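Following up on my earlier message about nicotinamide-adenine-dinucleotide. Here are the inputs again, as you asked, copied directly from the submission form:
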Amino acid sequence: MNTFENQVAVITGAASGLGLVIAHKLLYEGARIGLLDLNEQALNDEFVGNPEQEERIGVDVTDEQRVAQAVARVAERFGKIDILINCAGITGATNIKSHEVDTANLQKVFNINFMASFYTAKAVLPYMLQNNYGRILHVASIAGKEGNAGMLAYSASKAAVIGMAKVQGKEYAETGITVNALAPAVIQTPLVDAMPEAQVKYMTDKIPMKRCGTLEEAANMAAFIVSPENSFVTGFTFDLSGGRATY
Ligand SMILES: NC(=O)c1ccc[n+]([C@@H]2O[C@H](COP(=O)([O-])OP(=O)(O)OC[C@H]3O[C@@H](n4cnc5c(N)ncnc54)[C@H](O)[C@@H]3O)[C@@H](O)[C@H]2O)c1
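Thanks, got it. Here's what our run produced:
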């Protein structure tokens, strides 16, 4: 498979979970990738075999200036940017009601889940506009579509991400750039492992298929969304919820 031969991607949150498997799939299918994550050590541990295809960058994606520098470094090394996949994300405190939410924690969640996705999109779009081609995928969540009780900060930040994909999809619709979001239900990753058991049960019980999604299912769907084949869908939030969201 060489779907992504001659294509250059930027993936945030590439050191773990969804970002990690999506990055491996795109590498395998020929992409050259800027791998961005706060956890530089994990990036170095997880990516060993393809130095000529990888630019590993330890960066806090909530720092707009450092994001712009990281994106410029990828474009300089590989010559262009075709794909952006925003996977970096956190849940913040969960299993609490809105009156118990700590404002600083909510702001931190928004900074990573929403603001950072805005910064990366803002940084890559000029490169994509140069070539009249681009695929942006913001990884949102079913929580953003449905609103998970106990997860105000996370759900609201992911709803904001879905709103951004709708806006950006329309803004760049005539340019060859598509912007979409993905709304997974529960997929076992370190992010889910770190959540209170009661909150994970609440989310998993709502999945009609009565199972979690797999990392492979997430990687396959993400790869399709950012492929050249996916050319007539933009501003859309793809579902990956085992039947929870039928809209
Ligand atoms: N796992 C699920 O069930 C699930 C469901 C719906 C949506 N999502 C979304 O998918 C995305 C990936 O989640 P995951 O489950 O793979 O999580 P994960 O915790 O396994 O990976 C997240 C990665 O983001 C990185 N990161 C966090 N903050 C960062 C920052 N400030 N700067 C740079 N990197 C940072 C972490 O170091 C980590 O490597 C997230 O946006 C998450 O909200 C996950």
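One observation from looking it over: The first strand starts at residue 8 and ends at 12. Hope that helps, and feel free to reply on this thread.
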